[in-house]
Amino acid sequence: MKKKLLTHNISLDTSFFEQNNFLIGAKINELAELCKKGIANIFITDITYRETIARFRKNLVASEEKTKKPKEQLATNARVLRNFPEMKGYFELPKIDIEALHLKFKTDFDNWLKENKAVIIPTEHITIKEIFDAYFNNRHPFKEGEKKHEFPDAFTLKALVEYFSSKKQTSYLLSSDNDMLSYSSKILIPTEDSSLLYDLIIRTTNEEISERAIELLEDEFRNSKAFLEKETKEMIMRAIEDEIGSTYQIDELEIDSVQQIDISDIDLNSFSIVSLNTTDKTAKLECSITFSFEVSFSADDYSEAWYDKEDDKHHFVESKTFSIEDTYDIPVTINAHFDTDEEFAELEIEDINYGKKLDVMDSFNPRKHYY
C-alpha cells in the first residue's frame, strides 16, 4: 500500500466480512468508528451484499454441526453435574435456529450498512457480454481452473471501476481474496492490511493535533518497550498454561500439569495506530511480538493400559513428560491515553492474539515431543 493516503473511500469484499467474523470482528468495529467520525466512506456492490448474507448462512450451518458433538459429550460425560440445579445451563443449551438467526443477521447487516452510510453499488446494468469477454480471454479475475467461481468477482470489480470512474474518484479495496488483491487498476487500490489502511487514514486526517499525539505515543512506546515486553511475556505464559491446563485429553493421553514454561527471544515490533480519538485523547495501537517458547508438561499415557472392572481402575498407566518448542509471531493490542497539552502518554496492553487461543497444542505429537 502507498504511504500517501489517496482516498477516504473503502470498498469491501465479501472475504473481508467473513475473515472478520462478519459484524463482530475488531476490524469491522474500527472501520465503523472511522465512518462515524466522517473520515472513511464505505462502498459495497449488491453482489457483495447478497454474497455476505449467503456466506453467513453457510458458516452458521457449519457452526451448528460443530456444536452437536460437544452437546452430546456434555450429556454423556458430565451427567453427574445434573445433581446441581445451578449446573443445568450446561444441559439446556439453546437450539440453533438457522432461519431465525439468518434473518436476524440480515436485519443487523442492513442496520450496520445504514448506520455507517454505506453505498450499495448496483451491478444489474453490467452486460454478460462484457464479463464473458474477460472469461474467454483469461482476463482478470478469470484464470485457469474453476472459473465459474470468479464470476461474482468479475461483476463486482467491473461495477466498482465504473462507479468510481464516473465520479472521478478512486477507492481502496479491502479483501483477503488473492484474485482481488492481484487486480491492477488506477481506480481500485487492493489491500488486505486494514490496520495499515486505518493507520494511514487516521494519521492523515488528524494531522495537526494527531501529529503531536503520534510523537508522544512513539516516544512512550520506545521508552516503555522493555516493560511492555515483560507484561506481554507474563500474559503469554498465562495463556500457554491455561491452554494446556484446559486441554485435559489428547488421544490416549490425560494432561496432568504444566511443569515449566520458558519464553525467550522476545521482541515487540513497531506499532500501527488503528484508532485515535483526539476528543477523548485515547488511541488503540496494534503491533506484533515475536518470541520462542519451550513448555514441558506431564501426562498419563493410557495407550498400554487396561481397565479392571472389578477394581474400577486402569493398570499400567505410564506417567510421561512432554516438551514443545516453537517460535510465534502474534498480534498485541495496546490501549493508550495521551494529552498533547500536558505532553504525556500512557500505554496499557489490552490483549494478545486478539484474545484468542495461541493453539500451542496444534502441532503436538506424543512421539515427537516425548522425552
Describe this structure in words.
With 371 residues, the protein is an alpha/beta fold. The protein has 10 helices and 13 strands. A hairpin with a 4-residue loop joins strand 8 (272-277) and strand 9. Helix 2 packs parallel to helix 8 (194-205) and helix 8 packs across helix 9 (207-223). The two termini are 47 Å apart. The mean pLDDT is 84. Pfam families: PIN_12. This is DUF4935 domain-containing protein. Residues 10-180 form the DUF4935 domain.
Overall number of structural domains = 2
Overall 3D shape? globular
Supply the helix-strand structural class. alpha/beta
Helical stretch tally: 10
| Biggest sheet descriptor | 6 strands, antiparallel
Q: Give the mean pLDDT.
A: 84
The total of beta strands comes to 13
Helix content: 25-40%
What oligomeric assembly is this protein in? Answer: single chain
Termini, distance in Å?
47 Å
Strand content: 25-35%
What is the H-and-E element order? EHHEHHEHHEHEHHHEEEEEEEE
InterPro entries: DUF4935
Organism: Mariniradius saccharolyticus AK6
Domain DUF4935: 10-180
Protein name: DUF4935 domain-containing protein
